[in-house]
Amino acid sequence: MKIAVSSEGTDLEARVAHKLGTAPYFAIIDPDSNYLEVVPNPGASSQRGAGMQAVVLAVSKGIQTVLTGYCSPIARRQLEANGIEVLSDLSGTVKEVVKQYQEGTAQRSAGIGIGSRARGGKIGKVALAQALRSSARQFINMLPILIGVVLLIGLFNALVPKDFLASIFSGNAVLDTLWGTCLGSIFAGNAINSYVIGQELLTHGVSLFAVTALIVSWVTVGLIQLPAEIAALGRKFALLRNALSFVISIPIAILTVSILNIM
User: Fold this and answer.
1) Angle formed by the axes of helices 208-220 and 235-262, to 10°?
2) What's the CA gap between 43 and 173, in Å, rounded?
3) Disulfide-capable partner of 96 in 54, 92, 202, 259 (CB 3.0 to 4.6 Å)?
4) For residues 29-66, b (16+ Cβ closer than 10 Å) or e, as one string?
5) Structure pTM?
6) Inside any domain, residue 137
7) Across the strands, what pairs with 3?
C-alpha cells in the first residue's frame, strides 16, 4: 500500500508538515516494498485550492492513506470519497508517524497533536515552533508573488498601449465580457495577478464587465494547465469542466456587474 505523508523535507527524518495543503513535499512510502518517493507539493505556494491540489496528487499517485498534521474538512471529504484514509493531528518525523501507523498507534496518538493542544487552550513549545516555521515559510513563498505583482504592473503599462485595448474592448457589454473571458482562460498564474491586471484594465478605460469576466475565468478555466488536469482527472472531465466554466463565466460576470449597478 502507498502512504503519503505531508513533509517539511525530502527524507524520512524530515518533520511532518502541519498543514496538508501547504506542505512543501509529500513523502510517498510503501512499507511493504521499502518504496520511497518524495514529490514537491504543487499547491505549496497557492493561496487558494491548495488542499484540492493535494487531493488530485494523492488520487493520481494511487495513495491509500494520508498522514498529516491538519487536513481541511473539504480536502478530507474528497480524499475519503476516493477511498483514501486520512489521519491528522500527527507530529514528529515522517519515519515516526509511518511507524505509528504500522503499529496501529497513530489513531490513538492523534489526540496529542497540535490540533488538540490548541483545543485545550495550551500551545506547547513544539507546536509554537512549528507554527512560526510555517508562517515564515509562507511569507517566503509569498515574496515571489509580491515581486511578480510589482513587475507585472510595470510590464503591463509598458507593453500594452491604451489604443490596443480600445481596439479590443469596444464598450459593448456582451463583447467585452466575451473578450475578458477569453483572456482569463488563456492567462496563467496566481489569482492575485488577475486582480492586478483587472485594476490596470479599469484604469485604461476597459469596462467592469470585461474585468469581472477575466477574473472569473482566470480562477475557473485553465487552458494552460489543461494537460495536467487531463492526466490527473481524465480527458472527459477536464474538457467538460473547462468548457462549462468558460460558458458560465459570461453570465456570471454580466449578472454580477448588473446587480452591482442596481445596488
Assistant:
1) 150
2) 35
3) 92
4) beeeeeeeebeebbbbbbeebbbbbbbbbbbeeebebb
5) 0.45
6) no
7) 29, 65
Q: Total domain count for the chain?
A: 2
Determine the pLDDT at residue 47: 54
Other beta carbons within 10 angstroms of residue 6's beta carbon come to 30
Domain range for 190: 161-262
Is residue 69 domain-shared with residue 184, that is, in the same domain? Answer: no
Q: The domain spanning residue 80 has which CATH number?
A: 3.30.420.130
Residues across the chain: 263
**Residue ranges, the chain, pLDDT below 70:** 45-49, 106-135, 138-139, 141-167, 188-190
Same domain, 104 and 165: no
What is the secondary structure of 192-245 as a DSSP string?
HHHHHHHHHHHHTT--HHHHHHHHHHHHH--STTHHHHHHHH-HHHHHHHHHHH
- pLDDT on residue 240: 93
Report phi then psi at 34, rounded to 5.
Answer: 60, 30
Express each pLDDT in 76-91 by its tens digit: 988 999 899 999 889 8
